[in-house]
């Protein structure tokens, strides 16, 4: 069994009038075998921005740290919090930079 086979499940989000909801499972497993029941997939970026990262556990960890680093660099350079729209562009460019 390889760490490269540990997958997380699902993240869903919905927007309503003056509200949002984000839900995810906490399961981490390999096919039918559960490895952990407390694997976070939704992470706080700022007070108004969260990100959900389902999928391979090593990718979730890598992306979480990469986004945290880039958001902190933005905060240092701009001397303000990153806006959700700017963070969305950051996510898009990060996910497509190696294509």
From TrEMBL:
A GO CC term attached to the entry: proteasome core complex
Pfam families: Proteasome (PF00227)
Superkingdom in the source lineage: Eukaryota
Keywords tagged on the record: Proteasome
GO biological process, one term: proteolysis involved in protein catabolic process
Protein name: 20S proteasome, regulatory subunit beta type PSMB3/PUP3
Lineage, highest ranks first: Eukaryota, Fungi, Dikarya, Basidiomycota, Ustilaginomycotina
